[in-house]
Write a structure and sequence with these properties.
The chain has 501 residues and is of the alpha/beta class. The protein contains 23 helices and 8 strands. The protein is globular.
């Protein structure tokens, strides 16, 4: 672990500072100075800076890349002008949906910013409970891959493969856990720098507290505890969420997904750079692409950020649902997801060239087939999931005591159509012994019997009703859109609210 030693500026700092600030506008340079002044004041003066630690959470996408570069510029500015600066902790979180291209982008950014061998930089990779110094070739722990795989399947079966519940709900709780671990690791940090506006932070906090209150959490106490209170509220939400997903008696699943809440003795301050900079990527395209070496990878860049490949899988699931569940075509389902994706990209003010890049990857039959193959390969490599398991997930044949099982077998596994009673018996309360059927179920779903039996006694989520925390989470999620579709029963035009990223 690199430790901050104080002292005069590193001999490379003048060159790095000149290179980096050469890509910043006058407004951004003023923002660098203002942020430096704020940090000096918060630290208690220039002489206290050597013992001050500032953290940036780095997802590996284009937006968080800019925040890392901006805070690095502040660090260099203080070192060159005052001979003292803070330690910069940059922490990146990984999960199974993060392809190698993201780590390669992070590595290029660190190299361009001179962070890899700087004793004033702590570069951490956090893989759930495992915290290690960053290295581009760090293997993802098998245990984490298994947690992510099971979460995708359990969420996906409850939500019929709808994008956000399937991939983002558990992941968002894992992000909260990541913040707790990153901010309090090895003595903790004094400040967390964020690109979120104060308004965004307040809206997010209010949403969390509403969910927490509905989950039985004492939100009044949480509100008095700052950042740690937010994490405690999220721990309560997570406990309710995973009990709903896995059952009250699933202690191992609940324990390994519990949100870390840090240490009561240290309370990091949040400082936003939002009002000091522009977040439109085309305003600093040269910085991100030319200087930092950021690449918009075919998998890692999908429709919103460029930090994981799950959005591409969301489109794939929508298309599989149209093909296998609704008896339409794969391309029809894909077109519906692209309608959502385009709306989300415009809401996020993505530049038109990136919108065109994302949508252009689907604009011919050959490209759509290529994307399907890429998605299929990524699902297998990242999550160990075959197309057969994804189709089972979007069909959700095991929930509601197997209400859709007969239709699933008839359409997808006609050779098993006469086995419905045996499958019901294996999944039911008695858990009839049938090794051959149990093995087939594991193969076709990707889940073991314990989880399949949990699904059997659970319901397919009704997103129009507030009866489950899964539906309440999606109700407050802005990443959804009514798309034009076809009612598979009548063939008439219809609209459907779907979510994604």
């Amino acid at each position: 672990m690199n430790q901050h030693t104080g002292g005069p500026a590193n001999e490379r700092y003048p060159t790095l500072h000149a290179q980096l600030t050469g890509f910043l506008s006058d407004v951004e340079l003023d923002g660098v100075k203002a942020t430096g002044e704020r940090l000096v004041e918060a630290a208690g003066g220039i002489d206290a800076l050597p013992d001050y630690k500032v953290m940036v959470a780095y997802g590996g996408g284009k937006d968080s890349t800019y925040v890392v570069a901006f805070v690095r510029a502040v660090q260099l500015h203080l070192a060159l002008n005052f001979g003292r600066t803070f330690t910069l902790r940059v922490a990146n979180m990984r999960h199974a949906g993060v392809p190698r291209a993201v780590m390669e982008n992070i590595d290029r950014v660190y190299r361009a910013l001179g962070l890899l061998d700087d004793d004033r930089a702590e570069l951490l990779t956090i893989d759930h409970t495992l915290v290690r110094p960053f290295h581009v070739d760090l293997p993802l722990p098998e245990h984490l891959i298994e947690i992510n795989r099971v979460d995708v399947l359990m969420n996906g079966h409850r939500a019929a493969g709808d994008g956000r519940p399937t991939f983002c709900n558990s992941c968002n709780l894992a992000v909260a856990d990541f913040y707790g671990r990153a901010a309090w690791f090895d003595g903790g940090v004094d400040v967390v720098m964020t690109g979120d506006s104060r308004r965004e932070q307040l809206l997010y906090s209010a949403w969390i507290m509403r969910l927490a209150k509905a989950s039985g959490v004492d939100v009044q106490e949480c509100r008095t505890m700052g950042f740690r209170g937010i994490l405690l509220a999220l721990r309560g939400i997570g406990d309710t969420y995973f009990r709903e997903l896995f059952g009250d008696d699933s202690e191992s699943e609940l324990a390994e997904r519990e949100v870390s809440t840090g240490d009561r003795s240290m309370q990091p301050q949040f400082i936003s750079v939002y009002d000091l900079v522009s977040y439109r990527v085309h305003d600093h395209w040269d910085l991100i692409v030319d200087f930092l070496g950021f690449q918009f990878d075919e998998l890692a860049f999908s429709f919103s950020e460029s930090d994981c490949a799950n959005p591409g899988l969301m489109a794939h699931l929508r298309a599989l649902r149209a093909e296998f569940v609704q008896g339409r075509t794969y391309d029809e389902g894909l077109a519906e997801y692209l309608e959502l994706a385009e709306e989300l990209m415009h809401k996020k003010e993505m530049p038109q060239n990136l919108v065109d890049l994302a949508l252009g990857r689907y604009d011919t039959a050959e490209k759509r087939l290529h994307r399907r193959k890429l998605s299929d390969a990524f699902a297998r490599e990242a999550f160990g999931l075959s197309e057969e398991a994804l189709v089972a997930m979007v069909f959700s044949p095991f929930t509601d005591r197997g209400a859709r099982l007969a239709a699933f077998l008839e359409r997808c596994h006609p050779d098993r159509a006469d086995a419905a009673d045996r499958i019901h018996a294996v999944l039911g309360a008695d858990g009839a012994a049938d090794d051959e059927t149990a093995a087939w179920l594991r193969g076709v779903s990707g889940l073991g019997l314990t989880h399949l039996r949990t699904l059997y006694t659970s319901s397919l989520v009704d997103f129009a009703a507030p009866g489950t925390i899964i539906s309440r989470v999606r109700a407050g999620d802005p990443h959804k859109y009514h798309v034009a579709t076809i009612d598979p029963a009548s063939g008439a035009p219809a609209t459907e609210l779907i979510s994604g990223r």
